[in-house]
Write a structure and sequence with these properties.
heterodimer; A: 266 residues; alpha+beta; Phosphorylase Kinase, domain 1; 8 helices; 7 strands; B: 180 residues; mainly alpha; Rna Polymerase Sigma Factor, Chain: A; Arc Repressor Mutant, subunit A; 2 domains; 10 helices; elongated
């Protein structure tokens, strides 16, 4: 059975938050009565979640960022390597200071500062972790009793990011799980917390004090990766971590969607 | 460098640069390749720089995405003429019929999506005609509302709604077709 054109438009507008409160209320009543409509909604929600987790991770190359940031700057009459270098540095400064400084997700701004502070503090202390272990079977149970959620502890040694250990950070007055990985000579802090502003935002970029932080979430948990490693390296880490954690979270999400459909059909 | 130039550069940096990631993602999903997307964004940034004095305020993100969208289509028409279905070529009625026939039983879709990997998802997106793909990308990746999408794509809101509905139905149908 196909949805009528009107129902399909209503369904999409409901999913996209474009219905007025009265219309949304009416539509929700119908959702309860018509399992067919509910199933079509769940399918579109699963599609959104998959699209956002799979497709929203691309970042432009630093070269493009520099080229765009350097636009309109007049080359000097005798373009020596010095002036080229100066314009490159200015370009990098503009790209870093402006593109990353004006954070798109303002709600995350405070969190990003706290997370970068925690990372910097850990680098200044005698050890960046409270428990030092490269064994994820040791690290995961260490969090028991310290935080009230089960963090994803991915083993990324094969991808070139060995686990160094873990610590508990405090973000917005709540404990958050932080894993520390090594990327060559740099350390990456990966903070996980059950604080989600919008369930499925694409990967966000934040710049604080020369550190790049990438944030994303899977609907239940928010994740923040921060490092002074090269942006491409951090991005590669985020992709590896997401790939390790993604299947589990997507399966959970869809299993719960499936149950709801089965319940409404039964 | 005189004062006017400096003002324009600052304005460009404030308006365009914060939306570089958005610009790149839109170009990537319209062009289908990173390399092409970088060329498109670079060209769009030059157009934006030249037109910055004409930006009268309002929503800078929508302004940037409008330029990137238009540049994507002109760049693709010039450099990848076979890769793109432009809006004028689209027979909405015929497509609607085709979609009606392909509309799957919705219950197994959620499970099918679970089995998709990123590569399959990208391939499925690539098969969507550009007018459907662009509204879907602007909605799901950029998280824009119907009004802003209509503004960027230069479409009436009703067309945005119907294209978005069809884009989702097409993608879901292509998953069911792939799995069968």
């Amino acid at each position: 059975m196909n949805l009528s054109e009107h129902d399909e438009l209503m369904l999409n507008a409901y999913l996209d938050g474009e219905l007025s409160p009265i219309e949304a209320h009416r539509f929700e009543r119908r959702l309860g009565d018509e399992p067919m409509l509910g199933a079509a909604l769940e399918a579109r929600r699963a599609l959104r979640s998959a699209l956002r987790s799979d497709l929203a991770t691309d970042l432009p190359s630093p070269q493009l960022r520099n080229r765009v940031a350097g636009l309109g700057r007049k080359p000097h009459a005798n373009g020596s390597w010095r002036s080229l270098a100066a314009s490159f540095i200015l370009g990098t400064f503009l790209a870093g200071g402006i593109a990353w400084g004006i954070v798109e997700q303002r709600a995350d701004e405070g969190i990003s500062q706290q997370i970068v502070s925690a990372h910097i503090r850990s680098l200044m202390s005698s050890a960046p972790t409270d428990i030092a272990s490269s064994e994820h079977h040791t690290v995961k149970p260490w969090f028991n009793g310290k935080i009230n959620f089960a963090p994803v502890v991915a083993d990324l040694a094969a991808q070139g990011f060995p686990l160094v250990g873990a610590r508990v950070d405090v973000v917005d007055l709540a404990p958050a799980a932080t894993l520390v990985y090594r990327a060559g000579k740099h350390l990456i802090s990966l903070t996980e917390m059950p604080k989600v502003q919008d369930p499925t935002l694409p990967v966000g970029e934040h710049r604080e004090q020369g550190y790049l932080a990438l944030s994303w979430n899977d609907g239940q948990m928010a994740y923040w990766a921060i490092s002074d490693a090269a942006p491409e390296e951090l991005q590669r880490f985020v992709e590896a971590f997401r790939a390790a954690g993604k299947l589990t979270s997507l399966r959970t999400l869809l299993a719960s969607a499936g149950e709801r459909v089965a319940r409404s059909a039964g | 460098m005189d004062v006017d130039d400096t003002t324009e550069q600052t304005r460009f940096a404030e308006v365009f640069l914060p939306h570089l990631v958005d610009a790149f993602r839109l170009a990537h999903w319209l062009a289908g390749s990173r390399a092409d997307a970088e060329d498109i964004v670079q060209e769009a940034s030059m157009r934006a720089f030249r037109g910055i004095s004409g930006f009268a305020g309002g929503n800078p993100r929508a302004w940037v995405l409008t330029i990137v969208r238009n540049t994507s289509y002109s760049w693709l028409a010039k450099n990848r003429p076979s890769a793109i279905v432009l809006q004028g070529d689209l027979d909405d009625e015929a497509r609607q019929q085709q979609l009606d026939q392909a509309d799957p039983d919705p219950s197994p879709e959620a499970q099918l999506i679970a089995k998709m990997d990123s590569a399959a998802m990208r391939r499925a997106m690539a098969t969507l005609p550009a007018p459907f793909r662009e509204v879907l990308v602007l909605r799901e990746i950029h998280d824009l509302n119907y009004k802003t999408i209509a503004e960027i794509a230069g479409l009436p809101i009703g067309t945005v709604m119907s294209r978005l509905a069809r884009a989702r139905r097409l993608l879901l149908a292509s998953f069911v077709g792939r799995a069968a």
